[in-house]
Amino acid sequence: MRHSxxxxxxxxxxxxxxxxxxxDSGVPDMSDFAKMMVAGAKERGLALTGEGGLLTDxxxxxxxxxLEVEMxxxxxxxxxxxxxxxSENYRNGTSVKTLxxxxxxxxxxxxxxxxxxxxPVIVPKHKRRIDGLDAQVLTLYSKGMTTKDICDFLSESYGxxxxxxxxxKITDAVIDEMKKWQSRPLDSIYPVIIIDAxxxxxRDGAVANRPVYVAMSIDSEGFxxxxxxxxxxxxxxxxxxxxxxxSDLKNRxxxxxxIVCCDGLKGLPDAIRATWPEADIQTCVVHLIRNSLRSVxxxxxxxxxxxxxxxxxxxxxxxxxVALEEVEQIWKEKYPGLLLPWKNAWTExxxxxxxxxxxxxxxxxxxxxxxxxxxYRAAIRRRGHFxxxxxxxxxxxxxxxxxxxxxxxxxxxxxxWSPAYNALLLMYGERLNRR
Length: 435
Fold this sequence. Notes:
- The chain has helices at residues 5-12, 31-43, 54-75, 131-142, 147-158, 164-172, 175-182, 239-251, 268-275, 285-293, 298-312, 317-331, 340-344, 346-349, 357-363, 367-380, 389-401, 417-432; strands spanning 91-101, 104-113, 189-204, 206-218, 224-231, 256-262, 280-283.
- By secondary structure, it is an alpha/beta fold.
- It has two domains: 46-172, no CATH class; 180-432, no CATH class.
- It has a five-stranded mixed β-sheet with strand order 5-4-3-6-7, with helices on both faces. It has a two-stranded antiparallel sheet with strand order 1-2.
- Helix 4 (131-142) crosses helix 17, helix 11 packs antiparallel against helix 12 (317-331) and helix 16 crosses helix 17.
- It is elongated and about 95 Å long.
- The two termini are 58 Å apart.
- 29% of the residues are buried.
């Protein structure tokens, strides 16, 4: 049987409880240890978090022990074992420090040495928060909590008191990271780029509605990615604003795009043609459906939606025109404006009908962007307005990169991508091979 120094340490120190290790895993199994501690806490009526809580006290003990071990390594001998011949440096008492953690405030005693050369790594000098708290603040911020909400939540849930200024400093720490992300180099060609905009309120002298432009790509491997976020000026969208955004993408390396999906946004088609002349512009089908159904009451919603399906599932443009006329005959008396969105966007809709079924599934809708927009709306719902553009972009960026367990995020792979890519190769093979 193997015997290690760890075994010796367990035998010498009765305060350390050995735990089992799953065979060949190399990862300690703490489940039995955790169950024992939780059961003990229940018997004594202890809470898990907050002042005097089980996890709070355990965190305090682990940090305290880690600091003592660091000091041992720094001095070269264990506490109480110093001789003058070993070192001229020695322990010189402790200083009390209160750490803010995501499970409550923890008071520790940081050991000091005589010459002041000890630089702890686990709890660095001047640091009053451990990393877990910063990560939790950023997650809460990205989900729509204001700085005050976060302060109240941490105080009520964990007993951790943190100021609004501290929350702002934690979130401001991502600005440099966000700027690097926003200016990162991009692929030279994308099979699909999906573009949309969401409106927010920004205070710039006076509070005004401002668009935030979002560009999501699907690359040749089928992976989605958010290429960038831009806050436009007040006064709505327009060709000039879109040109600024598309020029940024081109300057970062995007030479060509096969298909650009959008929602018929004013000025966008012209801006796309000026930036990528060979791109096919495709209006989002689901947006057309939604625009048509806005004036339809619930009692007719299902029937109208079923009839509209005949248009966008048609095999070609001629068949789609026939379906459009038939649907108009059925509903024109009740809903005379039902098909206006389709007629107004017909030129941008019809390229969709030339695509094979495998490719239609990919570009059928901008639902990927809609899902992302749902994140953004959740993040801005509780905010009346943003004080600056940077403050807004900070929230949007954190919402973009946030990962949620069990849910597909905006940066993910398209399901069943291979058939769609084969169809793209048949239609755009020469251009896709330019990369």
